[in-house]
Amino acid sequence: MSILDRDYLKKILYMKLYFEGPSDWSIREYIEVIDDYLLERLPVIANSVLEPHGLEAYMLSEDEACRVLGENECKDKVVIAIQDPGTERTLFYAVYIHKTGSNTFEFQLKDVVSA
């Protein structure tokens, strides 16, 4: 199966994290720690599965994500650009749902879309 197949990319980039607990300060602090760590490590995680296939990933800023997805679609999303490192051309975008609440945390792959 080719790495440039969307379904294959969805399979290797799939992640789902969900946490729900009582609504108090300790849970809010725990969610903040999970969120900070995940967003810091997400490009490293994506690159670890893409680099063996000759691709690179980087996380888009919120503004860049809104330009790619559109203003109405970028709320509660994190977007990873998937590039060919030889040409630095973006081939795909991995779109993740990213929601945090006072006692909930949700992060999961929504889709991989062509650039």
Overall pLDDT confidence: 94
The topology string of helices and strands comes to HEHEHEEE
Overall shape: elongated
Domain module count = 1
Quaternary structure: single chain
Helix count equals: 3
- Which range best describes the helical content: under 10%, 10-25%, 25-40%, 40-55%, 55-70% or over 70%? 25-40%
Low-confidence stretches: none
Report the span from N to C terminus.
20 Å
Number of strands: 5
Lateral arrangement of strands in the main beta sheet: 1-5-4-3-2
Provide the β-strand percentage band. 25-35%
Q: From the alpha-carbon coordinates, what is the Rg to the nearest angstrom?
A: 15 Å
The helix/strand class is alpha+beta
Q: What is the makeup of the main sheet?
A: 5 strands, antiparallel
Describe this structure in words.
- This protein is α+β, with helices and mostly antiparallel strands and 115 residues long.
- It contains three helices and five strands, in the order H-E-H-E-H-E-E-E.
- The protein has helices at residues 6-13, 25-50, 62-69, and strands at 16-20, 56-59, 77-84, 89-100, 104-114.
- Strand 3 (77-84) and strand 4 (89-100) form a beta hairpin.
- The longest helix is centred in the first third of the chain and has 26 residues, at 25-50.
- It starts with 5 loop residues before the first helix and ends with a strand.
- The mean pLDDT is 94.
Q: What's the short story on this structure?
A:
By secondary structure, the chain is of the alpha+beta class.
List the helices and strands and how they pair.
Layout: H1 6-13, E1 16-20, H2 25-50, E2 56-59, H3 62-69, E3 77-84, E4 89-100, E5 104-114
Antiparallel strand pairs: 1-5, 2-3, 3-4, 4-5
